[in-house]
Amino acid sequence: MREEIIKETKVLLMEGALGERLKREYSIEFDERIAMASLVYSDKGKQVLIELWSQYIDIARKFNLPLLVTTPTRRANKERVELSQYDDQVIGDNVAVLKEVKASSGIELYIGGLMGCKGDAYTGEGRLTRIEAKEFHSWQIGKFKEAGVDFVYAGIMPVIDEALGVSEAASEIDIPYIISFTIERDGCLIDGTSIYEAIRTIDEQVERKPMCYMTNCVHPSIVLEALSQPCNDKELVRNRFLGIQANTSPLSYAELDGAKDLHTSNPEEFANEMRKLQMNKGLKIFGGCCGTDNNYMELVAKLITR
């Protein structure tokens, strides 16, 4: 996937929720080590994954939008894979399933290799240093390149050091990538680094920059507030921070983390908040996280293609 695709395309759709829907709608349990990455080895798991991806593909087709979809591999890092019953083919096997989906989709579809931080994405606990992160994440990024993904998607990165280490690894391995931050209302990552400083730091210190920056697992109203903070009201942020995979609750990470019940805003309100990010902040990649489904994403697609 070339960076020019993001720059030159007016708007792109990203998949909505997978994990939360698999639990809530289908009562599917995840592997204790690698979570959803094991589902491709189960007939039911694979079938349901394809069913959910197909719903988002149908929406992209209906509104003539390019679609970004990601492998369910956020927890399939080297350490967790080695502790599991699975082997290092798990990344390639997950990519292979999405390649089958892409081949039959009939739309412009890009496969992202999803990865995450080593520790807690919402508190930063267990964070890695820049050097540790580069070493730790290189294995998974290398496996994504071997498997032939279109880009790597580093989701909910809570601290700048680990995000920078991931960026250095992806830059050296030479694969297109997107960094998606964990951000709060104050416009900062969990470690207090502003979105602007995080983007500036990574862009200045890696040879091959991310294609763009995003956020995920956060309500669009929180992102609008975060981007409106004086520390982030800058041209660099407007040019480089281009996407969101949003959840449907306006609660903070601290309030949501470990919550037993699903908190949601209604689909119309949610879609309108996403539209505000497009109109006021120039975002162009729109996807869903916890609480979303095909109904939410179809409303989003309808509004962002006006």
TrEMBL record:
Pfam families: S-methyl_trans (PF02574). Keywords: Metal-binding, Methyltransferase, Transferase, Zinc. InterPro entries: HCY_dom (IPR003726), HCY_dom_sf (IPR036589). One of its GO terms (molecular function) is methyltransferase activity. Residues 1-304 form the Hcy-binding domain. SUPFAM superfamilies: Homocysteine S-methyltransferase (SSF82282). One of its GO terms (biological process) is methylation. Zn(2+) binds at C217, C289, C290. Its cofactor is Zn(2+). This is Homocysteine S-methyltransferase. It comes from Anaerosporobacter mobilis DSM 15930.
